[in-house]
Design goal:
The protein is of the alpha/beta class and 410 residues long. Helices cover 50% and strands 7% of the residues. The strands form 2 sheets. A 5-stranded parallel beta sheet has the order 2-3-4-1-5, sandwiched between helices. The protein is flat, with a radius of gyration of 31 Å. The relative contact order is 0.07.
């Protein structure tokens, strides 16, 4: 027997849940589909958000013969066999190949498609759960229109589940419905599969309660996989939330990373952010965050979330400065340009300073021999001697440093 998700799969665009940015009547995607002039396309997004459903609807509405392959098992011979069908009298409206998980095809397999999608022998709709710009070869990308499918909002999953339940003998209260929708984490297929699992456990009961959902111990379909592109999406969002001074977003992504078992990556991002984004605005925070990370790695999960949460909120709410990062980047740029090859004689290795130092011009001045431990002398190479790398930013600590050295150096 087919799963409930397959039995309830929509057969027209108007019934597809989610993807309003693609499927509203004013979108270019919607207009293309309705025109029946279907270009080669690539759908990418998380599982269970309608990629296969929309491909089926396109094939039916365009009257093209639909063939399906999966990148995990497809071979070049499978592709050639489908191409051979183009001359079949039953396929006069053309062939539409739906290729799921295209990222699993190797370069040679993907290249075998190029000739046929270019000459129009087939129309290709490929899909992937990965970012295609990382996992699909450029030659394919340049010949397809890329459309992003997004996780389905909880409110829209609720509407779809309620529609299914209302057409059955079942009832459910709004709180239980919300939890059931939330557990799917944006995946409509997962939501329906969870509902089907509930149906099999209810026996002759007609009401779905919160207790029924809890008893199933349905695990949230967490959109996080350490081996996939979402791994880097979550790490990026965590780092940017820290930099953007949003403690709520930062603590959310920390929780998501730790739920995915990624304590090491979360710790590295905290150490990076406190140095890159807080930096000299609050340098005392650097050893504090290091202590939090060390504590977390010694404690392990689940207790590790406590010091890591402290570090996350401290970084997110701290004043920010990237002056040291910018200073290094600018210096590195000059190095890459080949500048500053010759170190000034005065600051070369001290073993060169002998009795004839004055003749050689090695007149290094020891700063601690002078008032305030400072004396003016040239440290940068001649071609960079007037270069300014470090520029203090507008925070209390750096303004204090700037004022101190202005007073000393004047």
């Amino acid at each position: 027997m087919k799963p409930l998700a397959d039995l309830l799969r929509p057969n027209k665009l108007e019934d597809v849940v989610g993807q309003k940015h693609l499927l509203n009547e004013h979108s270019s995607f919607y207009k293309i589909i309705k025109s029946n002039k279907i270009p080669n396309m690539l759908f990418y997004g998380p599982p269970g958000v309608g990629k296969t459903t929309v491909a089926n609807i396109i094939a039916n509405s365009s009257k093209m013969k639909l063939f399906k392959l999966n990148g995990t098992s497809a071979t070049i011979e499978d592709i050639k066999a489908i191409i051979a069908e183009k001359d079949n009298l039953l396929n006069t409206n053309g062939i539409l190949l739906y290729l799921d998980e295209i990222q699993y095809l190797n370069k040679k397999q993907q290249q075998s498609l190029l000739e046929f999608i270019e000459n129009g022998d087939i129309t290709l709709i490929a899909s992937t759960t990965e970012n295609p710009f990382f996992y699909v070869y450029p030659a394919i990308l340049s010949r397809v229109n890329v459309f992003e499918f997004k996780a389905i909002p909880v409110d829209e999953i609720k509407i779809a589940l309620k529609r299914i339940i209302d057409n059955s003998y079942l009832t459910i209260d709004d709180e239980s419905l919300s939890k059931l929708a939330t557990l799917a984490n944006g995946d409509m297929r997962k939501a329906i599969n969870n509902l089907e699992l509930l149906l099999s456990s209810l026996n002759e009961e007609s009401t779905i309660s919160m207790k029924d959902i809890d008893n199933l111990s349905i695990k949230t379909n967490l959109s996080y996989d350490r081996g996939e592109d979402k791994h880097f999406d979550n790490l990026s969002a965590f780092m940017k939330s820290l930099r953007g001074s949003d403690p709520d977003a930062a603590i959310y992504y920390l929780a998501k990373l730790l739920e995915g078992g990624d304590i090491l990556a979360a710790s590295r991002r905290l150490l990076c952010s406190v140095n890159e984004d807080v930096g000299l605005a609050y340098p005392q925070l650097i050893p504090i965050v290091k202590a939090c990370v060390d504590s977390a790695l010694q404690l392990g999960m689940p207790e590790a979330r406590l010091p890591l949460s402290n570090a996350t909120i401290l970084i997110a709410t701290a004043p920010k400065s990237n002056s040291s990062y910018l200073a290094f980047a600018k210096a590195h740029e000059d190095i890459e340009k080949g500048k500053g090859i010759n170190v000034p004689r005065a600051v070369q290795n001290t073993h060169c300073d002998g009795e004839d130092a004055l003749i050689k011009g090695q007149n290094y001045k020891y700063p601690h021999d002078y008032p305030h431990h400072y004396v003016k002398q040239q440290y940068l190479p001649d071609d960079l001697k007037n270069q300014k790398y470090y520029i203090p930013q507008d925070n209390k600590f750096e303004k204090g440093l700037e004022a101190y050295w202005k007073d000393i150096k004047k």
